[in-house]
Amino acid sequence: MTQALQVVLAKRPVGDVTDDCFRAETVTLPALTDGQILIRQRFLSLDPYMRPRMTELRSYTPPFELDKPLTGGSVGEVVESRNERFAKGDIVMGLLNWATHTVHDGKGLRKIDPSIAPLSAHLGILGMPSFTAWYGMKHICKPKAGETAFVSAATGAVGQVAGQLAKLAGARVVGCAGDEDKCVWAVREAGYDACFNHRTERDYGAVLDKLCPQGIDSDFENVGGRIFHAVFARLNNFGRVAFCGAISEYQDKEPMAGPPKMFTIVQRRLTIQGFIVSDHVALMGDFVNEVGGLLKAGKLKSRETVVDGLAKAPQAFMGLLKGQNFGKLVVKIDG
Amino acid sequence: MTQALQVVLAKRPVGDVTDDCFRAETVTLPALTDGQILIRQRFLSLDPYMRPRMTELRSYTPPFELDKPLTGGSVGEVVESRNERFAKGDIVMGLLNWATHTVHDGKGLRKIDPSIAPLSAHLGILGMPSFTAWYGMKHICKPKAGETAFVSAATGAVGQVAGQLAKLAGARVVGCAGDEDKCVWAVREAGYDACFNHRTERDYGAVLDKLCPQGIDSDFENVGGRIFHAVFARLNNFGRVAFCGAISEYQDKEPMAGPPKMFTIVQRRLTIQGFIVSDHVALMGDFVNEVGGLLKAGKLKSRETVVDGLAKAPQAFMGLLKGQNFGKLVVKIDG
């Protein structure tokens, strides 16, 4: 009989997520039935998209259920198997509970080779956030030499890859991030041409005018809100927006209005496209070839924040929504 | 020496266009120089996009110049030619002055065959508005059977064609228009499944919920503002918006905010694409084949309002911006 620690959704947040939205529980997992495996989890990914799942009724993923464990991308080890696809000792990745252990039917799980990279990388630079960045850049933003590409949340799990891919494509790349250290890293390590601190800059329009004197040709949008409004107003003719997230708006009690002058979309022939990477799993092979190749060649940097222990996941997640992490945020789980 | 009546931009409007934005002038045209032709105009097209040109500094077309004639799509007859491409008697179409006569270098003018259709049709169902509708439907909205397509300004020069093309593609087609007669025409003649009066309906959300019970898969947007906000909130997953115009916003002194909850774009994987048909002239041949074929087969209806005399153009244009025309608005010119 395995005892598991898990974190369940205790109540739906209104506005900011608070401690009492979560409850840690120790449960005794049932014995496996045919087809099931028991996974001892090693790393859990925390991602901004989880915030809408805590409340949204009509979203791309069904909302988390009250009094059930939250779920997230996770890497773990198979410690018991009654499923012929998986053997004890296999390392797997997939959507698992916020828990030390998950009993799973194996559907949607993928075996990974732990010799390729540290396990947590499969949740970041080799995983969903990186795939998201690649898809949005490759298929929507399509930056090229002579253009200016903007990336909000420039050093986040997705943004850090998006910015580097735009730079590799030859564009001038400008971003914003939530503190000075992140801005310094973006420029020195990730190769951004410029990165401004959206907490200390008051006039986003003025700073964008300065850093993007030729306007903005593509926007990889992770933040939404006032930053998006300022970028939108500076998009050039035939500008593209890969709309990936709007973290600045997730905790608003009242939905924020969109940017004024939607007619700009017509005047400048803009394309604004929302996307969710899980719609594009058929392209995973292309992503692995391309981004895997860049990684091997040492052409991509990555940065992560590792939080130790599942019990700290709620606090870390609340911090993520306020931008307190640096790079990809993962929780190390000692199950 | 030809005397021409012309209408010049006397001042840039702020908010509603007023009489004093225009000035009618009689001028003596200069003698032709080599390469020039003199066109006696027969019909002038009045279109909503002219309103932004009266003020906008950064628009897709340069703004009209103060104290110079406004311009617009026009059909006329060559009455004198010093250009070998054109002979006296040719009927031509292109961007000409709001005038009884224009002296032109011939660039961008197209000869038309007056036996195909009434001359005014080349400004409507056979011309730019229809090409606009075709491009937006064919290349952005892509309606199909089982889907719901929405068209704002359902009976306007563009909307009436857009709606019929969506219906021919098999979609349920819902529109809105500014009076009862237009709504009746939309349903009885143009084949809309439903059309509501946006002047008498107060709750656009409620009427859309009723008329589009399966949500909205594509939106051909001509109006913007509150109607667009209500449509946006009801777009289905993978919904498409062909953003063609925003007539409801053109006369706002303060720009209207965009729809709240831009994150909807991500959640539902929306694509919002602005377009201007003049970017796509390479597709004109496809348009003529397809829409010309439908017209010959009697599968497209059209409706126009003809205003008699250039002197009435300003008043007619102000009416257009308030939706007082029915279908394509043209001015008959007796030069």
TrEMBL record, chains A, B:
Biological classification of the source: Bacteria, Pseudomonadati, Pseudomonadota, Alphaproteobacteria, Hyphomicrobiales
Source superkingdom: Bacteria
SUPFAM superfamilies: GroES-like, NAD(P)-binding Rossmann-fold domains
Annotated Enoyl reductase (ER) domain residues: 15-331
Organism: Enhydrobacter aerosaccus
PANTHER family documented for this protein: PROSTAGLANDIN REDUCTASE (PTHR43205), PROSTAGLANDIN REDUCTASE 1 (PTHR43205:SF7)
Name of the protein: Enoyl reductase (ER) domain-containing protein
Keywords recorded for this protein, A-Z: Oxidoreductase
GO MF term set: oxidoreductase activity, acting on the CH-CH group of donors, NAD or NADP as acceptor
